[in-house]
Amino acid sequence: MEVFDMFELTPFVKHNAVYDPFKEFDEMEKRFFGGAASFRTDVKDTGDAYVIEAELPGFKKEDINVSVEEDVLTVTATRKEEKSDKDKKDGYLRRERSYGSFSRSFDVSQVEADRITGSLEDGILTLQLPKRHKAERSVRKVELQ
After folding, report:
1. CB 61 within 8 Å of CB 126
2. Whole-number Å distance between alpha carbons of 12 and 9
3. Which residues pair with 43 in a beta bridge?
4. CA Rg, the chain, in Å?
5. Tens digits of per-residue pLDDT, 77-109?
6. Domains defined for the chain, CATH in brackets
């Protein structure tokens, strides 16, 4: 599972001019199996909070689970697929649906996890993650015996 550090969100892409047959195999596998089990997200810093917007078109609220465990926020969306040929009752010649679980995780060690809120509207999941207030650092001299 890939965990994104809230403070290092710049994607790194390595470009190489040398032909890589393994990369081509990976791309073929993604096309064949429908791509990586992930979804697109935007992360914004609003000053006193972070906002995560995740694209989840076609998912209902009950299909999405957002949880925080040990400073890691995980968003999981589950889809169920159905395929059938000729449903004479409703006039369908072919019906297709997809199944799968899509997941993204984020380091939330710098946010107040108990105050995270979220909403789902028009296929966009929006999470508000209030930042932790930085405690003043105190320095205390330790007397040696």
Report:
1. no
2. 9
3. 52
4. 22
5. 998 766 566 656 677 777 776 677 888 999 998
6. 3-8+37-130 (2.60.40.790)
* CB 124, CB 133: distance < 8 Å: no
Q: Residue holding tokens 């159905």?
A: 82
Cα separation, 8 vs 3, whole angstroms: 11
123, 18 contact by CB (below 8 A): no
Instruction: Evaluate if pTM is beyond 0.85.
Output: no
State the SS3 of 5-74: ECCCCCCCCCCCCCCCHHHHHHHHHHHHHCCCCCCCEEEEECCCEEEEEEECCCCCHHHEEEEEECCEEE
In the predicted model, is pLDDT for residue 23 greater than 90? no
Question: How would you class 8 by CB atoms within 10 Å of its CB: exposed for 0-12, middle for 13-18, buried for 19 or more?
Answer: exposed
